[in-house]
Amino acid sequence: MTASTPPPIGAPNDEVSATAAHAATGGLVKSVVALDRVVIRLAGDSGDGMQLTGNRFTSETASFGNDLSTLPNFPAEIRAPTGTLPGVSSFQLHFADHDIMTPGDAPDVLVAMNPAALKSNLSDLPGGGLLIVDSDEFTPRNLAKVGYATSPLEDGSLEGWQTVPVPLTSMTLDALADSGLGKKEAERSKNMFTLGLLSWMYHRPTEGTVRFLERQFRRKPEIAAANIAAFRAGYNYGETTEAFAVSYEIKPAPMDAGTYRNISGNQALSLGIVAAGLRSGLPIFLGAYPITPASDILHELSKHKVFGVRTFQAEDEIAGIGAALGASFGGALGVTTTSGPGVALKAETIGLAVMTELPLLIIDVQRGGPSTGLPTKTEQSDLLQAMFGRNGEAPLPVIAPRSPGDCFDAAIEAARIALTYRTPVMLLSDGYLANGAEPWAVPDVDSLPDLTGAVGFATGPNAASTDGTPEFHPYQRDPETLARAWAVPGTAGLQHRIGGLEKADGNGNISYDPANHDFMVRTRQAKIDGIAASIGPTDVEDPDGDASVAVIGWGSTYGPIGAACRRIRASGRSVAQIHLRHINPFPADLGEVLARYDRVICPEMNLGQLALLLRAKFLVDVQSHTQVSGMPFRSAELAAVIQDAIDSTSTDAVPAGTAANGAMQ
Amino acid sequence: MTTLDTHVHDLGMPGNPISAAVAASVAESGEKKTDLKAKDLKTDQEVRWCPGCGDYVILNAVQSFLPSLGIAREDMVIVSGIGCSSRFPYYMNTYGMHSIHGRAPAIATGLAASRPDLSVWVVTGDGDSLSIGGNHLIHALRRNVNMTILLFNNRIYGLTKGQYSPTSEVGKVTKSTPMGSIDAPFNPISLALGADATFVGRAMDSDRKGLTDVLRQAAEHKGTSLVEIYQNCNIFNDGAFELLKDPNTGTQWSIPLEHGKPLVFGPDGAACVVRDDFGGLRIAETNQVAAEDIVIHDATRENPAYAFALSRLSSQDLRYTPMGVFRSVQKPTYDGMMTEQLDVARVQGTADLQGLLGGGETWTVDA
């Protein structure tokens, strides 16, 4: 991160690190203004292609070298009625010349493609923000659909913003007059016209989008040509119109040397799974049933058959995990991907995986619940389901990625634990990570963890019967990891039977012996607890080293919490940030670490599930801060919560330099 | 001999740990042993079915005939669900998994699809496969994954002590149906044919020869085979199949299915099967119809309608029950096609992980 001027607490946007010098507008001579960061939100009807437009703008921005973070936000309905509020789909992109952590609390620029998009997004645009609207869509009919009695473009209600009405639709049609396309088809290119305009406004490179359109529509060259024409027309419009006198330049962000790409959480997770297969030498078998927001992992992995990846679209969630477990029994790395309701259906098979002690990855891309809940919105409310949602004492490791790119490393770590300890592992991603994107430094394959040592299939007897005959005991354990022996079918002499009934310690025969059951329940728990020995101490981020308040989180809240902590530090206060990769087991020293602080705050997108675990496990009086709106936290709000905690914890915890005696804290 | 592919696929990854483990075990214990005896397939586990249970007979028949398939026991895997029949894997000296209620076909699908070198078997019951696991059964059948499903049908829930099952006849009085069951039962053969199963057969637990014959054909079939085995539960549904087992009535009500032979049955061949007016089949008296009107059994018909019509001849009380192989047709197997797609992908591209990670649009930041 580049050093920057401390922003005021409670500024409308997070991570403000320099004043954006807005040059005076007016005059045909176009000026270029340097900004350090911008948050743009594109909003339109589900049929307007806002997600595609946002993704293209993101790719252009990534290849330009800005740091970025995105927040797609779309309805669960594939196509709600055109022009209505439920049909509004939006895409927010934050990009900057420095290291950023979130897609931004609020947009600086809002592009509204119709009245519905304006109505549902305007309240998020701070006063004075730039508002671009497609004036063609503000027809009496469209206005009536969303309850506007008069057009906001004419009734003065948009005076508080820099409103620029642009006839995007009709200009697109004009640009495509000679394309041979019908009106309806030509109209569809208005998103590319808009993208062209924004690309001019923010000096984005355009070659990538042209190449993308050629590739995307290679079987329909006339559509490709129309979209490219609209894209260029939008760009040229920006250059020549008087409506926009200023364009903006955001310099590339300083990043470590290396090759970068833009990556979403679901993509990164998929690549992590492929990498885990190659680094362990095991074939990957994915058993999955389509479910939002996890389906893209199935789509992505089904493209990678060249790596020996088998994907199986099952008849239901239960068959998805069943097939994955069957493949694991055969020596593959079984994987199943789903979201909350799917985890509920898989619970019994997860229990079987716990009992049979086979490696298995269960990937839960969490969404709003309960029941069908909010399929396209994000939430962290499956933590307790992941921890405890099974019959009996059925412990399993739970880990969580913190950012889209981090999903790659989390997948490999999940595989390491699953293989080393012969256990199902729950990986908790969420909708925000899955669909959000960020620049990702492409790792060198040779630097990835080598998992071959974690496999170790049995090839011969490991025990002897009472008369000394060599035997294979499938529940003979490694003394250090407590992992059981894993022999794959086809291995001569090691035939054995496993299943859901309780096993006798060692030989794995069915056992109803009370003492054996007690021992096995405790052993399975001890095995999972023992994973803590392999994960290292708690990682505490406290640059000042004197914080009395710690903020602890897990999963996708890393960005908003991190940005909030930066605000706090920029105001001269100290705060420690702890972000957990491993939730079960916790790092061995976590209880000790938490005990050092006067106050521990735990922000979560649920009603306090991690807080419950921390309180139960460590008797720490955790202050739970929760939000279940289906949207990520805003860092400004989190910063206010942290500031309150700091200020109420200690009377002398006011910003440095303002203490009465002038002493530094 | 079976047409099993005994080559362990290297899955495009030379030295993959599965192939290595299998090779190491062969090196340690000598060549794969395929000249087995029935006793080689027994385990040291005490068999715990009720004395007199039909499952014993089936277990013995399976252990006796399996060696003739020439498959090494380490290359066989038996997956079961929950119920009395699902204890089967514990008594077989092969690899096995006793899984959860109804899910065995799903688990076996993942195993068979990822390990085409194995001989995968599912042992299940009428409650396990037709009630809680009905969905997995029909989908396994339509996909045609290479595995053999043995469906032990005793028309009752045994392990939960005697409730009616999805194959119990209407009116059956059980603990949960004191006034008689009002559920219409499934005909498992009709159900399997409705799912376009490529191999469907039926046999009786006590008929060692008939059972062995159907099992052999099922095992040799490439694709999903379903064998319904009528199995007597002498505790909760004793005598359920007596009509077919009793020498006095058995020949009258059973229709033996022999490929290429006319469907003539009953004492002195007095009854036969002919086409009815609606494209189905009906029972006739042999001496009342022309010889050329008697249906010649053909299990290899592509269209399952004929086999389905055969399955509809029998009624809930088991009169006119065809026994043998209803259908046996060849279609591409799911695991075979999956392997083929992997092979094609490998011909078309290379497994370059570094290239994959850095795929798409990238940019470089210099030091």
From TrEMBL, chain A:
Residues 47-236 form the Pyruvate/ketoisovalerate oxidoreductase catalytic domain. The keyword Oxidoreductase applies. GO terms for molecular function: magnesium ion binding; oxidoreductase activity, acting on the aldehyde or oxo group of donors. This is 2-oxoglutarate ferredoxin oxidoreductase subunit alpha. Keywords: Oxidoreductase. InterPro entries: 2-oxoacid/accept_OxRdtase_asu (IPR022367), PFOR_II (IPR033412), Pyruvate:ferred/Flavod_OxRd (IPR050722), Pyrv/ketoisovalerate_OxRed_cat (IPR019752), Pyrv_Fd/Flavodoxin_OxRdtase_N (IPR002880), Pyrv_flavodox_OxRed_cen (IPR002869), THDP-binding (IPR029061), Transketo_C/PFOR_II (IPR009014). Residues 285-475 form the Pyruvate flavodoxin/ferredoxin oxidoreductase pyrimidine binding domain. Pfam families: PFOR_II, POR, POR_N. The keyword Oxidoreductase applies. GO terms for biological process: response to oxidative stress. SUPFAM superfamilies: Pyruvate-ferredoxin oxidoreductase, PFOR, domain III, Thiamin diphosphate-binding fold (THDP-binding), TK C-terminal domain-like. Gene3D superfamilies: 3.40.50.920, 3.40.50.970, Pyruvate-ferredoxin oxidoreductase, PFOR, domain III. Residues 547-611 form the Pyruvate:ferredoxin oxidoreductase core domain.
From TrEMBL, chain B:
Signal peptide: none annotated. Residues 82-229 form the Thiamine pyrophosphate enzyme TPP-binding domain. One of its GO terms (molecular function) is magnesium ion binding. One of its GO terms (biological process) is cellular respiration. InterPro entries: 2-oxoacid:Fd_oxidoreductase (IPR051457), THDP-binding (IPR029061), TPP_enzyme_TPP-bd (IPR011766). Pfam families: TPP_enzyme_C. The keyword Oxidoreductase applies. It comes from the Bacteria. Keywords: Oxidoreductase. Gene3D superfamilies: 3.40.50.970. This is 2-oxoglutarate ferredoxin oxidoreductase subunit beta. It comes from Blastococcus aurantiacus.
